[in-house]
Design goal:
304 residues, mainly beta, twelve-stranded antiparallel β-sheet, elongated, DUF1005
Length: 304
């Protein structure tokens, strides 16, 4: 097929080109006639998007094992399903437990698991609590001295039914007199035989907020959720590099449908996106896992 040029469009370079934000450079009708003669017109929309992203949303709270959809404007496309489970639960509704289970939950929160399945039903990512969420000595909350931890894993292609560690998410509660409580997160990825600190964030325990992996933003904000944080994100794993992920969750006791943004350049296959869905599920559940332990739960009431 022979290609033929039908016209030329010229756009003036403006300061908005360098702001790193999506911007519509031109939208409207433009003539494509030659030598200034009137002719055909083409409706053209030119958009500069320096950081294209995929957007996903859990259609319900993580503990309700929701479907995960990709959002494209007003269109929702099912991509994954999320399966939540935990140990020591009755065979009935997994969100309700016996009095003994509830008493145990008042002392520790462990055995929680999130698996992400693709549309064929295959598990493509998961998150498991590896260090229980327990109250620290002398207090009734999960403290920084003994944070709870999740292991984020992906399938081992060489060994069916086996998992390979990908990252570790730690979470704890920060309490300061006169200041509302915060939930702090610290996330490492495993690479080249070591652990690399990728993100350290604090969110409002009451209102929730955004967990993110963005080395540029970490550098600007100083990454300062706790006095012991080094704030040094200069030597990070290759999984990072600018914006990687952003996940919005609600505060404790509120229904939360995590909204996840992923940088397109970090997603080359379905499994790449799935591992971040597992991480988002762990972030959401950590808000509940870090709730204070002193509140008694009525027998037969919801254990969350």
């Amino acid at each position: 097929m022979k290609r033929q040029q039908i016209g030329v469009v010229r756009l003036n370079v403006g300061p908005e080109w360098g702001e790193g934000k999506p911007v519509v450079l031109f939208e409207g009708w433009i003539g494509i006639g030659k030598s200034g003669r009137p002719g055909a017109e083409l409706h053209l929309r030119v958009k500069l998007d320096p950081d294209p992203r995929y957007v996903f949303q859990f259609e319900d709270d993580t503990k309700l094992s929701p479907q995960i959809v990709q959002l494209q404007g007003n269109v929702k496309q099912p991509i994954f399903s999320c399966k939540f489970s935990r140990d020591r639960v009755s065979q009935g509704d997994p969100l309700w437990s016996s009095a003994a289970d509830q008493d145990s939950e008042r002392r520790e929160r462990k055995g929680w698991r999130v698996k992400i399945h693709d549309l064929s039903g295959s598990a493509v990512a998961a998150a498991f609590i590896t260090t229980p969420f327990v109250p620290s000595t002398g207090c009734d909350w999960v403290a920084k001295s003994n944070p709870g931890a999740w292991l984020i894993v992906r399938p081992d292609s060489c060994r069916p039914e086996s998992w390979l560690p990908w990252g570790k998410l730690e979470a704890w509660r920060e309490r300061e007199r006169g200041i509302r409580d915060s939930i702090c997160f610290r996330f490492h990825v495993f690479a080249e035989g070591g652990e690399f600190l990728i993100s350290e964030i604090l969110l409002s325990a009451e209102k929730g907020g955004e967990f993110f992996i963005d080395t540029d933003q970490q550098a600007r904000t100083g990454a300062d959720p706790s006095p012991q944080s080094s704030g040094d994100f200069a030597a990070l794993s290759p999984v990072a590099g600018g914006f990687v992920m952003r996940c919005r969750v609600q505060g404790e006791g509120k229904p939360s449908k995590p909204l996840v943004q992923l940088a397109m350049r970090h997603v080359t296959c379905v499994e790449d996106a799935a591992i971040f869905m597992a991480l988002a599920g762990a972030v959401n559940l950590s808000i509940e896992a870090c709730r204070t332990f002193r509140k008694k739960v009525r027998i037969g009431a919801h254990s969350w």
